[in-house]
Give the backbone structure.
Amino acid sequence: MKIEVQAFINQIQDQTYLTDEYELPTPDPFVADGILAQLKPAIDKAIEKQALASFSVLTEYAGEPVKVTLETGIVNLPLQYIKKVNQFFELDDQAEVNLYLYVTSPLINRSNMRIDLIGTVASFEEAAAANWTKIADLLTKDLEAVVIGSQAPKEEPVEKKAPAKKKAAPKKKATTKKKAPAKKTTAKKTATQKTTTKKTTTKKKTTKKAD
């Protein structure tokens, strides 16, 4: 089964593919059988129709979520990352449609996801029994990884130390310059010279009268 990349993107973005999610209590024992019993009928029907599909089972283990998904796609990325598909293909390319198994959980590994390629959708029915056995074996390993992850000592979150504050340089004391004492301006008194006006005495001439 091949599909044009642009047509694949359109179907996923328009949500015109087959999809459903099933909630399941934690299987006891925590094995693949109960999960695959939910997924197998839907996947078989999608492959018979040669249709794009995504079916998931939501459960939990040790208080953490576990999501198991069987999904068709043209690259090993969940359909939620559809915007990245054109990084791998030209839009007019014809791409083979494959079936992938995704197991998502914070317990499974550091990336929180395990991806396994099952095979092409076109050839799935030719060896359906062998393919379902392959899916069961891979899922069993993935669930075992979840159990092991739940038993690992939890890493305490590392507290990020706040960067040490730089010590502020001591502030220089403001030195106030002492103002030089103002010079006393002594106004010199200008001595006022007394101007004494000498009085000129005019002697009166006495004219003797003639006898």
